[in-house]
Amino acid sequence: MTESSERTGRMRALLSASATVTLATVAVNLLSYALVAIGTRTLGPERYAELAALLGLLLVGYVPAATVQVVLARRVAAGERGGLGQASLRTAVAVTVIGAVALPVLHLTLRISVPSLLFLVAALPAMTLGGAPMGAAQGLHLFGRLATTTTIIGAGRVGGAIAGLAAGGTAASAMAGMTTGAWLALFAAAAAVKGQAWRAIAAREGAQARAATREVAHATLTMLAMAAIMTADVLLAKRYLPAADAGHYGAGAVVTKVAIWLPYAVTMIALPRLAVAGQRRAALRVSIIVLAGLGVLEVAGVLLLGDVLFPLAVGDQYRPVLGWLWLFATLGAVLAIAQLIIMSRIAATDRWVAALLWTGLLAEIGTVGFLHGSIGTILTVATLTATAVAASALLIPVRGKGKPGTNLDLGTLPT
Q: Helix (H, G, I), strand (E, B), or coil: what is residue 398?
């Protein structure tokens, strides 16, 4: 077989894997947007502000699950198996305890009802453990199985929230449905994982379990900061803007979420290659170019069709935010690139990028606290923060486990 035919075969395999995972993520995202559409129309701007804040907290609460997935994918791809199931279980317990401790603080600062927060905390262990089957399949390049588990876990969680909202008509009922769906989906995903992937999770090794748990802890600090940056603007809007404006902002943030998660399959497919030092440069360079191109298309699509499609999706009462939709899309596109770069640094076992992210988050909070006059102000600060974080994470040298500092070595990127 010639080199050209081998390259063509690899490209076809990559496109097939990307298509499979993309279909799964699109299906789950469509359910998420259905939840938002139902919520905006059922609750109205003022009551939807609470659900928008809960969905923001849910993103932060999902960080340990995403971290478990990323760490398991990296370790399995690198051949560092053993103790992964134990590490996942320990992480789930720790996350639940932290969530319970944080509950009264969230209730007082964000003015969210206690029942809603209780249901959210009850879902945390199921969400966290759900990252294990996805990570094992991802690390083994079993993208069909990754698509299956992604669909099961996402549809269970979001579908449960939709059912709860339809049944009870409140943010608390949506969280109750989400919790039930998350637990059912966990057992279904575990049943769907077979053979190699299950053996990778179940293999027991005390020393490796401790190492994996430490890696999850370090990576969680990084991904928690990334998730906080992704959702800080919505929470800050809930904190500082009038209830109606906060609801408008929460609806506009749907565009940001679409721009982040629509191309997420690019990051999922790239991650196993980012875990291999010899493949990291090419994988990161190509993935950034693809995400940048998709981001341009997303912003262009919003500029052309946003005024028509957005009111149809969420209702005419959210028209006051139409003029800002292009910037919501820009924010999402930049965050998608930042997320890829952060994933690459996690795959390189970098231990310093968390400090960069937390610094960016604190700067955003402080700036908004001083200049929080409008939707446009909060959105502009969030976009500038995301841009600075992405650029800094790309340029600052990687410092892994005892390794000398090196940058991500992308070669020449188009400007």
A: strand
Residues with Cβ within 8 Å of 323's Cβ and at least 6 positions away in sequence, in order, are: none
Domain that holds residue 160: 21-395
CB atoms near residue 346 (< 10 Å):
26
Whole-prediction pTM: 0.71
pLDDT digits (tens, 9 = 90+) for 173-209: 999 999 999 999 999 998 888 777 777 887 776 667 7
CA atoms within 13 A on the CB side of 253: 30
Give the total number of structural domains in the chain.
1
Contacts of 6 (CB under 8 A, 6+ apart): none
Is 13 contained in some domain?
no
Residues 6+ apart with CB under 8 A from 245: 237, 320, 374, 375
Rg of the chain over Cα atoms, rounded to whole angstroms, equals 20
Q: Domain for residue 93, yes or no?
A: yes
Residues 6 or more apart whose CB falls under 8 angstroms from that of 379 comprise 233, 249, 252, 324, 327, 328, 331
Length of the chain: 415
Whether 400 is covered by a domain: the verdict is no
The 8-class DSSP code of residue 373 comes to S
CB 102 within 8 A of CB 228: no
211, HSE (Cβ side, Cα atoms, 13 Å): 14
Does 143 score more than 90 pLDDT? Answer: no
The one-letter amino acid code at 404 reads: P
- For residue 406, list its beta bridge partners: 398
Burial class (CB in 10 A: 0-12, 13-18, 19+), 404: exposed
Q: How many CB atoms lie within 10 A of CB 133?
A: 31
pLDDT at 48 over 60: yes
Find the DSSP H helices in 62-195.
63-77, 84-110, 114-129, 131-139, 143-168, 171-192
- Give domain status of residue 1, yes or no: no
For residue 415, the tally of other CB atoms under 10 A from its CB is 3
Cβ-contact 408, 398 below 8 angstroms: yes
In this predicted model, what pLDDT tens digit does every residue of 153-170 receive, in sequence order?
Answer: 999 999 999 999 999 989
